[in-house]
Prior knowledge:
By secondary structure, the chain is an all-alpha fold. The chain has one helix and no strands. The protein is elongated, with a radius of gyration of 16 Å. The chain starts with 50 loop residues before the first helix and ends in a 5-residue tail after the last helix.
Amino acid sequence: VTRDSILLDSPSVGLEIGPGVWTSQHYIEKNSVLTVLASEEHAPERYIRDYDEITRMARERLAKAASSPYV
């Protein structure tokens, strides 16, 4: 499990984030805008809001994948 920081400092730059990725946003300028395109309707009850829980789940997925005979 790793952490990265990406600075989006131009309106012509975008970032695609797949499912199961923990994100947080920090706005440097007062009038910053975040646009989200999603394949499903927003469902707050499905969100994982605890970083420790998401890292535990990621480690479990990695361990399961590592033990698979198909890897």
